[in-house]
Model the fold of this input.
Amino acid sequence: MNLGEHAASASYHRDSVPTVLILGASVSQLAAIEQAKAGGWRVVAVDADPNAVGLAAADIAEVVDFSELEPVVDIGRRHQIDAVVAISTDRAVPIAAAVAERLNLPTIGTETARVMTDKAAMRSRLQECGIPQPQFSVLNGKVEPTWGLESVGVPAVLKPVDSGGQRGVYRISDHADLAEHLPEALAKSRSKRAILERYIEGHELNGIIVVRSGEPVLLTLSDRLRPPGIGFGVGWIHLYPSQLPQAHLDAAADVAIRAVRALGLKDGIAFPQLLVTDTGETFVVEVAARIPAGQMADLVRLGTGIDLVEIALAQGRGAAVTDAMIQPHFQRPLAIRFLTASPGILPTGTVTAVEGLDHVREATGVLEAGLYIQPGETIRPVQVDADRRGYIIATADNPLAALELAQQAALKLRVRVAGS
Done:
């Protein structure tokens, strides 16, 4: 059911307070939970972890694995929800779509959700529609993996078909690499499949697109910088606006919009990730159907004044997303610097004390800063997204100057580990 059909047929909550079901209550969903409450929503948060920080922030906490459809549908019925929203995790997208269908609520549709969370299905759809993307091969444990490497070429990137957060992602240079890492990538996949893609040297972009009645509107393109080494897939710096030439950005925007159309998203927020070569050729890495993690909603809000959570809640309820909601109020250059251990500035080891966050927030140019570190936790070298242990968002006359301010502010933080 699309939004227009829902607006004509749905019976909303009888009282004046709408209820939203948010799948997941980790630190990635916390800001959205708090914002929805501040905006007048009653929030039902679902997470299997009873200690998830968002459960305490929600009006109603349900300790349930949100990947289990029937229990989540039952929660939605009991609490008479008006919207169901997936934020920051692909794992929630198919369930949100299925729950919404079962409860006659607005939804992107289960087929669109499948295509936009299963990398093999996504690659096949993009290939059918002629969207530029890396060469790829889908692998499982039952076939000889060398054929995939020979067809794709080296260097290549191996990843699970249906995981996220850079878990199980490896750069492959030869058959020995593939034989070593394929079992690990398969183990991170719920369907026990992996995808092998040609590694393309290029400049990475994050896009944010809002789709209304099948019409995609590009809101932002920002630069996504990655560290060297084993954590090569982790975005540890975002720069807005992008520093690429305008001609390259125009071409990338065209590819991003074509990809979203090809994947069938009619109403929702799309998160295309793109690679742009030095010659301006654009390739689609993947396209998510949700508000992304990694402070990307903050980038859009602080960089343009556009509120992605407000848009997601409106679309989840079947309300109109007006032109005013997707028009930039300003353009503010900014940089987001994530705090990591090697090759970042944080020490590795068991945390004993964290000091100086207030000084970071008071530093020149800093708009916002936050930490995901508690004493007793272990910091390790950056390998997956979860190894980002905090962030600093700074502004200046241009993104590179903002990055310099963020890095200067980071030096005011003191993280102590056992033995130091």
Notes: The longest helix spans residues 246-263. Residues 135-198 form a domain with the Dna Ligase; domain 1 fold (CATH 3.30.1490.20). The chain is about 35% helix and 25% strand. Residues 1-14 have pLDDT under 50 and may be disordered.
